[in-house]
Design a protein that fits this description.
Largest sheet of chain B: 7 strands, mixed
Largest interface: B-C, 52 and 34 residues
Strand content of chain B: 5-15%
CATH superfamily of chain C: Beta-grasp domain
Number of domains of chain B: 3
Chains: A alpha+beta, B alpha+beta, C alpha+beta
CATH architecture of chain C: Roll
CATH class of the largest domain in chain B: Alpha Beta
Number of helices of chain C: 3
CATH superfamily of the largest domain in chain B: Aldehyde ferredoxin oxidoreductase, N-terminal domain
Oligomer: heterotrimer
Strand order of the largest sheet of chain C: 2-1-5-3-4
Structural class of chain C: alpha+beta
Number of strands of chain C: 5
CATH architecture of the largest domain in chain B: 4-Layer Sandwich
Chain lengths: 162, 629, 108
C-alpha cells in the first residue's frame, strides 16, 4: 500500500508542503489551514521535520468519534465526513499524535486525507523529504525528534538545575 | 493596538494593506493597497521608492524622524514560488544619504502576509526603544528595553521564549548593537542569517529606536487569481533552476563556488585589493564549493518554499568555536569576513561571518574596513596605540573580532570606523585615504574585485540604491544584449549595465529572491500574472523597473547626489599590480563608459536627470516637473 | 601542471574546465579537469570550443545559446586572461595555448 513516507533528515524547513496543503484545504495559501505541519527542533532554526497523520492502525480519532464521522477511504486515509461531523473535538483529544485539528470557522474537525491518493505535499517538497511510495506506515518523526531535541532538553535541564 | 478586519476585496496576491507606524505619536494605521496602486508599484522596492519619493523631502536627513523606513514584500510572497519570503528595505540611507534598496529573505514576506499586511512604513522616532509585534491583522508597539544590547540572534531567541513560539512560527527582523549605536553600515538581520545590509538601513531603524519587528505566522490566507497557474509557473521556474544556467549553479551550491570561481580571473579580493595572487598558506582545495559545504556539519535552512541548495546552517567542527552553530556564509561572507583582509582559514571566516550578522553589520563593508585598517597598520599609518592595543596584522581573526566589537560600541578608534570606510579614510586622509575601497557616493563594493569585473564597478558607481543597481544580466538576449559580453570591454560594459537597469528593481518588488529568479524576466512575469490576474509581461516588468529606478535617481538628485560622485576611490579604481588582471584599468575608459551609459539609460550626462522624454514615457509628470520645471 | 598539459605535442592545446562547470564534462564540480585537443588550421577560440563541446553533450547544451553565441554564464579565458584582453573569440589559437571555461559569478 502507498503511504506518505517522511524522511526528516531531508527536510530543510522551507514549509512548501504547508503552502501546498493549505491550498487543498482552503483554496488559499494559508499555512494555518495546513494539515501537515513542519516542526522545528534545536532552538528552532537548525532541524525541521514535516509532521502529519500517518494513518495509524489504531485509528484513535475514528474510535473516539461519537457520531462515526470518520471513515477509512479507498486509499487508506482516516477521513472526516463533513456532513456527519458535529464539531465536538473529541477526536482531537483522542489523537496521541496531535494530527487532527478543529476549524473554528466551519466548526468541523479536519485532517490529512492523503488528497484522495495524490498528496500535494509530496509534489511540493523540493527535497523529497516527503514521498508517496509503497511502504508500511509508521511514526516517522519520533526518533528524529528525540535525537534532535536532546541538546535542547539538556540545555533547559541545566538551566533549571542552576 | 491596531486591530484590522480581514480583507474581502483586496487585489489577488495581496494582503491588501501597508501597516503605517508613526513612532513619535505611537499611532498605527492601515494604508489600503487598491488595484491601481498594486498594479503601478507591485510591492517591495517599487512601492518603497514611490513612498520615499512622495514623503521624504530634500531637507530630511537619514537620522531625522521624518525619514521613512519601508519594509515590504510583494505578490509572490507566501506562494509556492521558491524563495517567496522576500523582504525589500527602502529608506534614505546612512551611507550615501540617498535612496536605498536592499533585500533579505527568510520568512518575512510569507509571515507578514499571513498576518494581514504587505509591508510596514515607519516614520517618526520613538521616545523609548520598542519592537513592533504583528499577529493576525493586529499590530502593537511593545517595550524593547530588555532587548537592548542583544545581538540579532539573541533577540530572536529571546522573543521566541517571550512569545512562546519557535521555528518559522515567528519571524524576527532586528538590529544588533551596531544599529542601536547608529553604525553607518548597520543592517537589518532576520530569521538567523538573512541580512538587508546596505546603506545603513539598520542605523535608520536604530535612529527611530525600533529594535525589532516580530511577525507571527498568522491565519490570513492569500487568495490568488489562478492557483493552478501559480503552481505551474512555480514549477516551471524551479525546473529551470534545476536544469539551466545560471540558476543551476545556485541550485546546486548556492554561492559557494565564488571563491574558486573568481580567483582565476582576478575577481577575488585579497588583502584590500593589494594583490591578486593567492597566498601560499591558502589551501585552495579546502575552498572548493563542495568542500566548503562538507567541511562542516551542515543543515538545510531554506527560505519560504525554496528548493535551492543555497542557505544552510553549519556546525563548526574544530577549533575554539567547535560546536557553534553558524549560518553558512554566502560568497560575500567568505570574502568580507576573511579574504578581503587576508584570512584564509575557512573555519575562522565562517565563524566571523556569523558574528557580523549577529552584530548586524554589512559584511561587505566590514571587509573593506578591516582590510583598510590592516593595510594601514602594516604601513604604519595606524599604530597599535591608535587601535587601543589591537595588533591589526593581516589575516588575524582575533584582531578583526576585536575591531568589530570596538566599532559596534564606538569605543576609541571604533568611533571613526563606525562611520564607514569612506568617512574613516577621509578622517585619516593622506596616503591612508588612498588605500581605502569605496565609491565617491560613500558606498563600498560587494565582495568582488571589480577591477577585473568592470560591469560591477560601473554599476556600483552609477547606482542610486547604495549597492549594485542593475545586477548581472541573467539572460542578456532577452534585453537586446548579445549572449557573450566582455567584462573588460569599454563598449560592452556600459551597454550591459544600462540595458539591464530595471530588472533588479522588478525582482525586488515581487517578494522573492533574485537567486531563485535566475531565469527569464518573461517567466517571472508569468508567475506574477498567475498570482495577480494581470496580464503581466516582460515589458511591464521592465517598465516598472525603469520607473522605480527613475524615482530613486530623482530622489538622489533632490538629496544632492549627482554624476560628479560617480567614480571609484583611488584604490577601488586602481590597476591590479599582479594576478590574472594585472595591468588592466578602467581609468582610461571611465568617461567613455559613463557617456555610453548615460546615453543608453536616457539620463542627462551633465546633471544626471532622467530626460523629459523618458519621464513622459514612464508617466512620471511630477518628477519631470520637479527636475525640469 | 596536469597530465594532459604535460603530454601536449606540437599541435595541441589544453582545454581546462574549472570548478562547477566540470560537472558538465564528467568532473566532480571541483578543481580543474583538463583535456588535450588537436588544433586544426585556422582554429579560433570559438571553433575549437565548438569542436570540443561536441564530445560533451551536457556542456554543449549549456555553452551555446540558440543563436550560436557562447552563453553569458561562462567565462572563457585564453592563457589565463579573460577574453577581450589578449584574445577575442575569433582570435587564432597557437599550439600550447590553454583555453579555460569558468563559471560566472556576480552579486550575492
Amino acid at each position: 500500500m502507498k503511504v506518505l513516507h517522511i524522511e526528516p533528515e531531508k527536510c530543510t524547513g522551507c514549509l512548501r508542503c504547508e503552502v501546498a496543503c493549505s491550498y487543498v484545504q482552503s483554496g488559499e495559501f494559508n499555512p494555518s489551514k495546513s494539515v501537515i505541519r513542519v516542526s522545528a527542533f534545536e532552538r528552532g532554526h537548525t532541524s525541521f521535520s514535516p509532521y502529519t497523520c500517518f494513518q495509524c492502525a489504531e485509528g484513535w480519532c475514528m474510535t473516539a468519534c461519537p457520531v462515526e464521522a470518520i471513515d477509512i477511504s479507498a486509499v487508506g486515509a482516516k477521513e472526516v465526513q463533513d456532513d456527519q461531523c458535529v464539531g465536538c473535538k473529541l477526536c482531537t483529544l483522542a489523537c496521541p499524535y496531535g494530527t487532527i485539528f478543529y476549524d473554528p470557522e466551519r466548526e468541523k474537525a479536519f485532517k490529512c486525507n492523503l488528497c484522495g491518493g495524490d498528496p500535494q505535499c509530496a509534489h511540493a517538497c523540493p527535497t523529497q523529504a516527503i514521498t508517496w511510495i509503497e511502504d508500511f506506515t509508521q511514526d516517522w518523526t519520533g526518533a528524529f525528534a528525540a535525537q534532535r531535541s536532546a541538546a535542547d532538553l539538556a540545555r533547559i535541564g541545566a538551566t533549571n538545575g542552576r | 493596538m491596531l486591530v484590522t478586519e480581514k480583507k474581502r476585496n483586496q487585489p489577488a496576491g495581496y494582503a491588501g494593506a501597508l501597516l503605517r507606524v508613526d513612532l513619535t505619536t505611537g499611532r498605527l494605521w492601515e494604508q489600503p493597497i487598491d488595484d491601481e496602486f498594486a498594479r503601478s508599484y507591485v510591492g517591495g522596492t517599487g512601492m518603497g521608492a514611490r513612498i520615499l519619493y512622495d514623503e521624504v523631502g530634500a531637507d530630511v536627513q537619514w537620522n531625522d524622524p521624518e525619514n521613512r523606513l519601508i519594509l515590504a514584500t510583494g505578490p509572490l510572497a507566501g506562494t509556492p514560488t521558491w524563495g517567496s519570503g522576500g523582504l525589500s528595505v527602502v529608506t534614505k540611507g546612512a551611507i550615501t544619504g540617498g535612496a536605498t534598496s536592499t533585500q533579505a529573505n527568510g520568512f518575512f514576506g510569507a509571515n507578514i502576509k499571513s498576518s494581514g499586511f504587505d509591508g510596514i512604513v515607519f516614520q517618526g522616532r520613538s521616545d523609548q526603544w520598542v519592537y513592533l509585534y504583528i499577529h493576525n491583522g493586529t499590530a502593537e508597539l511593545r517595550d524593547a528595553s530588555h532587548l537592548l544590547g542583544l545581538d540579532t540572534w539573541e533577540t530572536q531567541d529571546h522573543l521566541y521564549e517571550e512569545l512562546g513560539l519557535s521555528g518559522h512560527q515567528l519571524s524576527v527582523y532586528s538590529i544588533g548593537p551596531s544599529g542601536e549605536n547608529l553604525i553607518r553600515f548597520a543592517g537589518i538581520q532576520g530569521d538567523y542569517g538573512h541580512v538587508a545590509s546596505k546603506n545603513g538601513c539598520g542605523a535608520v531603524m536604530g535612529s527611530k529606536r525600533v529594535k525589532a519587528v516580530a511577525i507571527v505566522r498568522g491565519n490570513r490566507g492569500i487568495y490568488v487569481a489562478d492557483p493552478r497557474g501559480v503552481f505551474r509557473t512555480a514549477d516551471d521556474i524551479a525546473y529551470q533552476m534545476r536544469t539551466e544556467l545560471p540558476g543551476q549553479n545556485f541550485y546546486l551550491i548556492g554561492t559557494l563556488g565564488g571563491v574558486t570561481g573568481l580567483a582565476p580571473v582576478g575577481g577575488l579580493p585579497i588583502k584590500n585589493l593589494t594583490t591578486n595572487i593567492l597566498p601560499a598558506e591558502a589551501d585552495m582545495s579546502k575552498w572548493e564549493p563542495m568542500e566548503l559545504r562538507e567541511g562542516f556539519d551542515h543543515r538545510g535552512h531554506q527560505c519560504n518554499a525554496c528548493g535551492m541548495h543555497h542557505c544552510h546552517m553549519q556546525v563548526i567542527r574544530d577549533g575554539v568555536h567547535a560546536g557553534d552553530v553558524v549560518d553558512e556564509p554566502e560568497y560575500e561572507g567568505w570574502v568580507g569576513a576573511g579574504w578581503a583582509w587576508g584570512c584564509t582559514d575557512r573555519t575562522k571566516v565562517s565563524w566571523m561571518n556569523t558574528q557580523c550578522d549577529r552584530a548586524g553589520v554589512d559584511v561587505n563593508e566590514f571587509g573593506w574596513v578591516i582590510g583598510w585598517v590592516m593595510e594601514c597598520y602594516e604601513k604604519e599609518y595606524l599604530t597599535r596605540q591608535d587601535l587601543g592595543g589591537i595588533q591589526a596584522v593581516w589575516g588575524d581573526a582575533d584582531a578583526a573580532y576585536e575591531l568589530l566589537q570596538m566599532l559596534c560600541t564606538r569605543q576609541g578608534f571604533g568611533d571613526v570606523l563606525a562611520e564607514g570606510i569612506k568617512r574613516a579614510a577621509e578622517h585619516l586622509g593622506g596616503p591612508a585615504q588612498d588605500c581605502a575601497v569605496y565609491t565617491m557616493k560613500g558606498s563600498s563594493p560587494r565582495g568582488h574585485d571589480h577591477r577585473a569585473l568592470w560591469p560591477e564597478m560601473l554599476d556600483t558607481c552609477v547606482s542610486s540604491t547604495g549597492t549594485l543597481e542593475s545586477g548581472g544580466p541573467t539572460r542578456p538576449q532577452e534585453l537586446g544584449l548579445p549572449a557573450t559580453l566582455q567584462v573588460q570591454s569599454p563598449d560592452d560594459v556600459p551597454r550591459q549595465v544600462a540595458l539591464t537597469l530595471g530588472r533588479r528593481h522588478f525582482e525586488d518588488s515581487i517578494g522573492t529572491c533574485f537567486f531563485t529568479t535566475s531565469t527569464t524576466i518573461a517567466a517571472i512575469a508569468e508567475a506574477v500574472s498567475a498570482v495577480t490576474g494581470w496580464n503581466y509581461t516582460k515589458d511591464d516588468a521592465m517598465y516598472l523597473g525603469r520607473r522605480t529606478a527613475a524615482l530613486m535617481r530623482a530622489f538622489n538628485l533632490r538629496s544632492g547626489i549627482g554624476p560628479e560622485l560617480e567614480r571609484p576611490s583611488a584604490r577601488y579604481g586602481s590597476t591590479p599590480v599582479d594576478g590574472p588582471a594585472a595591468g588592466v584599468s578602467t581609468a582610461p575608459h571611465w568617461d567613455h563608459m559613463l557617456d555610453t551609459w548615460y546615453e543608453l539609460v536616457e539620463y542627462d550626462r551633465e546633471s544626471g536627470r532622467p530626460l523629459p522624454e523618458l519621464l513622459d514615457r514612464l508617466a512620471l509628470p511630477e518628477v519631470k516637473a520637479e527636475l525640469w520645471g | 601542471m596536469s597530465d594532459a598539459e604535460s603530454r601536449l605535442d606540437g599541435s595541441e592545446v589544453t582545454v581546462e574546465v574549472l570548478t562547477w562547470v566540470n560537472r558538465l564534462v564528467g568532473g566532480s564540480g571541483s578543481g580543474s579537469v583538463a583535456f588535450r585537443e588537436a588544433l586544426e588550421p585556422d582554429d579560433s577560440v570559438e571553433s575549437l570550443l565548438r569542436r570540443f563541446s561536441q564530445h560533451h553533450p551536457a556542456l554543449h547544451a549549456q555553452l551555446w545559446e540558440r543563436d550560436g553565441a557562447i552563453t553569458e554564464n561562462l567565462h572563457v579565458l585564453v592563457n589565463h586572461k579573460m577574453i577581450g584582453d589578449t584574445h577575442t573569440l575569433r582570435s587564432r589559437l597557437a599550439p600550447g595555448d590553454t583555453v579555460s571555461l569558468l563559471g560566472q559569478f556576480s552579486g550575492g
